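To illustrate the input format used throughout this study, we show a single complete record. The first block contains the structure-token representation of the backbone; no residue identities are included at this stage. The design step must infer an amino acid for every position from geometry alone.
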């Protein structure tokens, strides 16, 4: 944060000190994107003019007083796109090539020949057409998968996602996919979108991959679907409650990959987050337009902005 300290007087606080620090602050860099401390500490008269969050998702940040007030919200869109896309491709390959069984058999020193699946020609549905979803679409297409997107706006020809179907046609898209990848923001419209009904529409051989937000999936419904064999597997990097409790059945279910919200975290990611914030801090101090301004009503950066 040395560069930021050259542009402004920086104060580092924890949640317990936040209420005292906010009235004198012009801007807040919310590093802990899972914290609810800001909502509890927000001044009744209104808070700072700008809040930046160290994540692409802003669902934990958009409490009513912030949404209704004058404060500008920006996110860290652009930092995680390619790393998450690489992670998703790795998960697709891990499923298709049954790497989990290979590692287990190696640990057991057992030689057991098996056949695996091809990914070339497999059908992937990417739900969410923001930068992360687009990076996933490009990566999977390059690996030979047939990609379709699903989002708010339908497009017949999209450079990254092929055909983009409107969310009203999600049922149809789910029924055709071998891999369903969730990269949508968590909003009132998307919360619980993958529920028992959606899982019933998926192919028995399909796998679900969630790198968006845990709340996109109705977790109890997913557990039931996996137990009943209604889908073949799931790779989950995000959960409604994090850390995932040790009592969750997802830890030990066959065909399930659990990772601790790390799909976008690669070597150097913290430095990238700080560089983005520092660039915006310079813009804020000089009165220039900020990058990644979130539409607080929609819950994500508007489509007319570039990261």
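Output of the design step:
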């Amino acid at each position: 944060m040395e560069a930021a300290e050259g542009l402004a007087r920086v104060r580092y606080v924890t949640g317990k000190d936040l209420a005292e620090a906010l009235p004198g602050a012009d801007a807040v860099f919310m590093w802990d994107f899972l914290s609810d401390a800001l909502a509890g500490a927000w001044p009744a008269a209104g808070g700072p003019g700008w809040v930046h969050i160290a994540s692409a998702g802003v669902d934990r940040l958009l409490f009513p007083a912030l949404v209704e007030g004058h404060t500008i919200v920006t996110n860290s869109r652009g930092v995680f796109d390619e790393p998450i896309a690489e992670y998703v491709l790795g998960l697709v390959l891990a499923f298709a090539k049954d790497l989990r069984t290979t590692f287990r058999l190696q640990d057991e020193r057992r030689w057991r020949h098996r056949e695996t699946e091809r990914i070339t020609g497999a059908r992937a549905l990417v739900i969410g057409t923001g930068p992360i979803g687009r990076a996933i679409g490009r990566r999977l297409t390059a690996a030979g998968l047939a990609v379709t997107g699903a989002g708010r706006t339908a497009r017949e020809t999209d450079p990254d996602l092929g055909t983009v179907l409107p969310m009203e046609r999600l049922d149809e898209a789910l029924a055709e996919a071998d891999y369903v990848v969730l990269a949508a923001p968590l909003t009132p419209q998307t919360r619980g979108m993958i529920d028992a009904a959606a899982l019933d529409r998926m192919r028995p051989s399909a796998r679900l991959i969630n790198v968006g937000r845990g709340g996109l999936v109705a977790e109890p419904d997913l557990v039931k679907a996996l137990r009943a064999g209604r889908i073949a597997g799931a790779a989950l990097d995000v959960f409604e409650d994090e850390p995932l409790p040790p009592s969750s059945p997802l830890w030990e279910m066959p065909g399930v990959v659990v990772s601790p919200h790390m799909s976008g975290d690669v070597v150097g990611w913290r430095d990238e987050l700080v560089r983005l914030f520092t660039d915006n801090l310079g813009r804020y101090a000089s009165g220039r337009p900020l990058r990644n301004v979130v539409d607080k009503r929609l819950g994500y950066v508007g489509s007319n902005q570039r990261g």
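Structural context for interpreting the output: The chain has two domains: 1-77+266-301, 81-258. The two ends are 21 Å apart (CA to CA).
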